Amino acid sequence: MCERAYAPGFVCCVRPLMEDVVNVVKALSAETRLRLLKLLRGREMSSTELQQSLRMPRQTLAYHLHVLKVGGLVTTRQDGRRLMYAGAMPGVADADGRFARFLSRTLDDVS
In degrees to the nearest 10, what's the CA dihedral of 53, 54, 60, 64? Predict the structure, then answer.
């Protein structure tokens, strides 16, 4: 975090915001992660269900889910012994919904 104060009580926060944006862009940069987001649109799924749907090794799935979580595009919750995943809107998404519309159109085009 930038510690340079521009005015009393105001601290520059560009660097953390930029890191958040970079994490979102990175999360959206792989077709596998887009396919994961499409599966998670409007529902929760366990890692086992995701692995079966995408037919990929557990380690590969775990990596892609981690990248999505760091980007703020996936949330998790514990359900007994299972970890459930759900799609989410990242904190850097705009308030008027342009990012949500962009993401929705992008996922519509993913096969």
Answer: -90
